[in-house]
Amino acid sequence: MKRFALFLTCAICFCACAVANDFPSLEPTFVFESEEEDFSSREIFRAALLFSESPAVDVTPWLSKYDELEAHVTSDDFLSLPELERAESVLDFLYERVLKNYQLKQTKLTVALDRGTYNCVSSSVLYLCLAKACGLEVVGNRAPDHSFISVNIDGRWIDVETTNPMGFNPGMRRQISSGAAGTKYAVVPKRQYSGRHRISDRMLVSLVANNLVSVLMDAGRFDDAVPLAVSRMMFLSGEEEGGVDDGRLNFDIVCSNYAAALQRKKLYVDSMDWMDLVVARWGLSPGLHGNYEDASFNGILSLCNSGKSSEALKSYEERKSSLSAENRLEIENMIFLAETKESVESLDEESGLAYLLERLTMPEASNPQIKKQLEGLVENYWIRKCAAMNNEEKFLEAASLAQEGLNQLPSSRKLIRIKQQSLSNYAAWVHNRFADAANKGRYEEAREILKEGLGNVPENAALKNDLVRLNRLSR
After folding, report:
1. Which of 113-117, 184-188, 258-262, 358-362 has the lowest mean pLDDT?
2. Under DSSP, is residue 159 helix (H, G, I), strand (E, B) or coil?
3. pLDDT digits (tens, 9 = 90+) for 161-184
4. Angle, helices 41-52/120-133, rounded to nearest 10 degrees
């Protein structure tokens, strides 16, 4: 069985299963259609809400809550603040009105508005939207397992760690209180994120779906995870991040994980059929290709192992144009062997042997592995024949059959051993008959028995010794 490449996580934060043939939908949960020409802060937030509550529900109540927040940061008093103070005040306002408790996997904007529970993605989206609404230049940033915001103040980009109420400009000391005991300050350490890079507004919003897809996969809810991944892929519309189509990559991961989940249930043919549906609907991407090949291989192997070589051949013919040359050769050899075994089982032993010998002359038998397996089937035929003769104490016939087999398979160690053992059994059988006659004083009969035995196994040491003893007794 080929190892299936299982993706455990799906990008930013956080990864099984299905009933056979009851596959998840490959259509989007929803298709985002902008209500405005430009991607305004409100539209950004509406998209985040739709991803949060996919399958899509009426997000108007939460959009109204956002409108109240936006009304505050677009008031004359707020807009009159200098940019630096305004940027810092957006974070303060969020923690006063919305953000209360951090939870790693709580990405939904709806939950953030209702309960104040948030993570790096939901808090970043909130800050980005409100900062844009009040005229600030902001961008989202993505790093492994994290997202945060940067705001441009007088040509200098300042980071904003939105998961911390003191996260404006990390590394800078910030006064938090002043009194008789003195002034207190807080500092959020500045972190150097390896692999940090700026992302578009669409990409930041799509991380809501990205995280939710991972949570759904963790719960084995592929019926929900796959359509949501399709919605995200369509929302990003091929937008690349670092030269990678992130929407398609995420979709490929979800589909591959579902295929792997089917294989863990030993539903190899279903896994193969699922990948076919994915390819038929959305094409065979480079990120999907390896797992598509492995699913095809394992599905065809399962058919071969189930005695369904004709179905295996049909499945292979339907898919071979998408398979590598190496996989094609391996599958063709696998089907050849499966066909051979099924045909042999349907024939009587003599016809089966003739069929196997014919298969050994075919081009496929030039493959050492195939040749070895075919020869193993031929060898087993002769072993069974020899065993039947030995069970009937027809030891010479068994040895003769073993030799016939050796004429076809000269290097068969098993047949060599069987021939030797059959002749040894014959010699023991002769010895026992000789001993019985000699012990009863029937020396001439004993001599005839030895003569016949040595005629068949002239080099047998035990029978030679018996003859020497007989000569002594009969003097």
Report:
1. 184-188
2. strand
3. 999 999 999 866 555 544 454 444
4. 160
| Long-range own/partner contacts, residues 326-335 (CB < 8 A, 24 or more apart) | 327/293, 327/296, 327/297, 330/297, 331/296, 331/297, 331/300, 332/364, 333/364, 333/367, 333/369, 333/370, 334/300, 334/301, 334/304, 335/300, 335/304, 335/309
The domain limits of the chain are 23-175+185-257, 266-346, 362-474
* Per-residue pLDDT at 106 exceeds 80: yes
What are the structure tokens assigned to 453, written together? 């035995």
- DSSP assignment letter at 172: S
Other Cβ atoms closer than 10 A to 463: 22
What lies within 8 Å, CB to CB, of 238 at 6+ separation is 245, 247, 248
Q: Show Cβ contacts of residue 382 under 8 Å, excluding neighbours closer than 6 positions.
A: 401, 402, 404, 405, 408, 409, 412, 415, 418
Q: State pLDDT tens for residues 422-449.
A: 999 999 999 999 999 999 999 999 999 9
Residue 285's beta-bridge partner residues? none
Q: Are 256 and 291 in contact (CB under 8 A)?
A: yes
Structural contact between residues 252 and 285, judged by C-beta atoms closer than 8 angstroms = yes
pLDDT value of position 148: 95
H or E stretch at 146: strand 146-153
Residue type, 294: D
Q: How far is CA 9 from CA 144, 194, 263, in A?
A: 11, 18, 18
d(CA 238, CA 230): 12
d(CA 195, CA 66): 32
Cα–Cα distance, 8 to 346 (Å, whole number): 45
Q: What is the pLDDT of residues 289-315, one digit of tens each?
A: 999 999 999 999 999 999 999 999 999
Q: What is the pLDDT of residues 247-264, one digit of tens each?
A: 999 999 999 999 999 999
